[in-house]
Here is the input.
Amino acid sequence: MKEDKRKNNGGNSTKSKGPDKRKNDYRKAILEAVTNEDVVEVVIKLKTMFIENDDLQAGKIFLENVVSKPTQEVDVTSNGESIKSIEPIKWIDD
Here is the structure.
């Protein structure tokens, strides 16, 4: 019987979900076919579509790629009150 190697990683599945992007031949071909100028042209087109046509989807894609997606922020409070900090552990020398 084959040994279950998941016991060494907390029981999580070792299978990847979807295609392995690191080994995707199509991705490599696309990257070889696209130049920096192509990327600049697409970004300018998205910006123009947003500004001239009020295309919100183009604006969203433009901003996500220029500014990056905002990260989800977590409010670290307790019922609207800020959490009070505590003193660090003090080591006592004997």
User: Anything to note?
Assistant: Residues 29 and 41 are 19 Å apart (CA to CA). The chain has a mean pLDDT of 77.
